[in-house]
């Protein structure tokens, strides 16, 4: 679980990313393709071609951090757009990392009556 501090935004890089890229390559993608500042402290999330691997790039003020997760079964839910960027909430990021469909989560319980 990644705790997202207040004020930190989460950006999803739409489309596929070459997962051979490390911190410098992903930072260049953030800057040149997503048109964002990789040193802003925000989180940038990338998904590979097969869909079972994500990388999260973050600047902590001293250097880049790179978090990686590979699902044993299934794929990470990703928007179908080929390019650009999408913003997520910290709650949506948590669902994404757990392999849950973060776009339309359904509640398992709904109150029937008030009181």
What's the number of structural domains? 1
**Radius of gyration based on Cα positions:** 15 Å
The number of E-state strands comes to: 5
Cα shape: globular
Report strand %: 15-25%
Order of helices and strands: EHEEEEH
* Alpha carbon gap, first and last residue: 35 Å
Kindly report the average pLDDT value: 88
Give unreliable regions as ranges.
none
- Strand numbers in spatial order across the main sheet: 4-3-2-1-5
Binned, the helix content reads 10-25%
In DSSP terms (H or I, runs of 4 or more residues), the helix count works out at 2
For the report, how would you describe the main beta sheet?
Answer: 5 strands, mixed
Structural class determined from secondary elements: alpha+beta
Question: How would you describe the overall organization of this protein?
Answer:
The protein is of the alpha+beta class and 115 residues long. The protein has one domain. It is 16% helix and 23% strand. A five-stranded mixed sheet has the order 4-3-2-1-5. It is globular. The termini are far apart.
Please tag this protein with its features.
115 residues, alpha+beta, five-stranded mixed beta sheet, 2 helices
Quick take:
This protein is α+β, with helices and mostly antiparallel strands and 115 residues long. Helices cover 16% and strands 23% of the residues. The chain has one domain.
């Amino acid at each position: 679980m990644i705790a997202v501090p207040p004020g930190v935004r989460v950006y999803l890089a739409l489309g596929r990313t070459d997962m051979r890229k490390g911190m410098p390559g992903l930072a260049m993608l953030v800057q040149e393709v997503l048109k964002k500042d990789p040193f802003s402290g925000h989180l940038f999330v990338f998904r590979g071609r097969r869909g079972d691997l994500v990388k999260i790039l973050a600047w902590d003020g001293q250097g880049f951090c790179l978090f990686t997760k590979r699902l044993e079964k299934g794929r990470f839910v990703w928007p179908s757009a080929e390019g650009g960027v999408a913003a997520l909430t910290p709650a949506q990021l948590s669902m994404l990392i757990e392999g849950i469909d973060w776009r339309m989560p359904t509640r398992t319980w709904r109150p029937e009556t008030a009181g």
